[in-house]
Amino acid sequence: MRPTPRAGEGTGECCMVPVRERLLDAGVELLFEDGAKVLGRGLNVAEIAARAEVSEKTFFATFGDKGRYVEALLLRFTRTPQRASGELGEVVEQALADSQGDPRRMLRTVCDWDYRQVRSDPTTLMQLAVLVLGRGHPGALKRLRQLYAGYDEAGVRAYRPVLARWSTSLRAPFTLEHLAVALTALVEGLALRHLADPDAVPDTLFGDTVVALVGALLDPEQGHGHVDDVIAPLADEVVRAHRADHLDNLPEHPRNAVIAAARHEFAHRGYYATSPAHIASRAAVPLPVLTQLFPVKASIVAGALRGPYADLRSLVDDDLALGVAPTTMLRRHLEQLAAFALNHREFAEALLMAAVHRPAQLDTEAVREIDLPAVLIPALRAGIAAGDFRADLDARDLAETLAHTLLLRCLTHPDATAAEHAATVGTLVDGLPGRPRTD
User: Fold this and answer.
1) Which of 68, 158, 202, 369 is buried most, with the most CB atoms less than 10 Å from its CB?
2) Which pTM value belongs to this model?
């Protein structure tokens, strides 16, 4: 692959192209046609000028010195690619119309177009040159990131209506942005491999690969599936073959292994999308062993949080023993509760759902002992008794409102600190004074 020839090349019209552009085109050609020579002796001004059909004096009059020329040359490598001029969305829409409803046909049509665009676009190789030659050039890298961001944005715009038309969603942890990045990397990688070894890359390889990839990523039932679920049947069989289902092959600390596996699965799938079988497979324990240790899934949450929750309650007891003022104590306990939720956010969804479901349900009853509102009740009761908060308030109801609001905020704003969460939820307390403030 070589850059597009200069305008007028071979026609006697080279002089119609601005001198600066001719010199930059000459440098690009020299690098791509005879890169080994350039590596050996560096860019030669005389040769560049000769290719551009100008004098060396004109070269220096245009760029000042060789260093500035190199700066401009690196930026030239990031010029807008030809394939950016094609509207991916239009191609996708036309492919949808022509596919007669067959997603496989539509995907292969779009991939064939995209692969030909990338393979024939000289900018594909030029972008690689930026990564090799210009990693220390902030302007070139910034421009390259902008180009890739443009590819990603075009991909997301094109793919979103396709998923809606197919009534499907992506399996976690993939997003449309992730898919756009992956497809760009895949098509560029195949195009580069084609340069080195054309016979190794059939024209249909990109389309076939994308059909397989999309088939694994799509969740037609929209059941909040995870990409691991696609390979789960095979993975489970391999795990069973690797570890016979008997006690001799158990982890040294099976209870801790189950808790660690649950933390990982909840973080990647969510609490309700994770089954005991998922946890058992990751923990490398037979499912009957897991259910013997933890009869229901929520009991794993209780087992993980029992110790940290006891530590949290001891902090509350210390404040009570030390006679900390109720309003100060409440704000302290809000921050401690927020820190608890952030440190164990993989299990926070289970705690929040336990508050929604009826206590009689076995799966939620297991976490009732991790009573987060109870952390706030002592400060609220003391504040009500002291007249700091309104006397008509029920401490339990108020504690549940504050604790569950705090827990929800920790789940939806994971990047905020415990102090920030506590300060936000603490504004609710400002409307509870039982007597006029004097401050």
Assistant:
1) 158
2) 0.55
